[in-house]
Amino acid sequence: MSTVMIIVLIAVVVVLAAATGVAVSRGGRTGGGRSLKRRFGPEYDRTLARHDGDTRAAERDLGERVKRHGSLRTLPLDPAARERYAARWAVAQERFVESPSEAVAEADRLVAELAGARGFPDSGHYEDQLDALSVHHAHHVHGYRSVHRAALGTTGAGKNPEENPAGTEELRAAMVEARALFDDLLADKGDRSATRPDSDKHASGKRSTGITRRGVQHG
């Protein structure tokens, strides 16, 4: 075989190897993106929007969350503690009619406390706690984000949402969204019947809870 033929063969091999590497690299990125999108659901879209549509930046962000918190194992919650949390939420719901802002603030505290009790970063590290929750409760974590912002007064409701129907509605929506995450945290995996042991009893009883998934009760 001539020297020229050897050089040509080497060049062909190099080109084929480079093309294969590019294909594998692209395939890996696509698979990772699809996997992250399945795992995070709506949180994937929110993260993408926060990164102004930059897919690589969004997936890098989500990938880092998985690395930091993916191995977290939820701690068990004893029945007595579950009952206490459920009862406190029911009281917060009832308070919503008279004082939406106080009810939302209590809901924010409850989610943070319950998350800490289940083994997530404690409430003193909100961003880290939120990231960890997004890995394990991606479809409902936005409820915590919403109620936390509402509790901090960033919804535009003002200091007296009771006098502002639009503001009250924003607080109601935030509390309803947070309830979905609260229910997930309260329940043991595989035991959906444990989601709301007492709060449904309060909600369906004679006293008004003040807020439901459909809207604020008046009377």
UniProtKB/TrEMBL annotation:
<protein>
    <recommendedName>
        <fullName>Secreted protein</fullName>
    </recommendedName>
</protein>
<feature type="region of interest" description="Disordered">
    <location>
        <begin position="187"/>
        <end position="219"/>
    </location>
</feature>
<feature type="compositionally biased region" description="Basic and acidic residues">
    <location>
        <begin position="187"/>
        <end position="203"/>
    </location>
</feature>
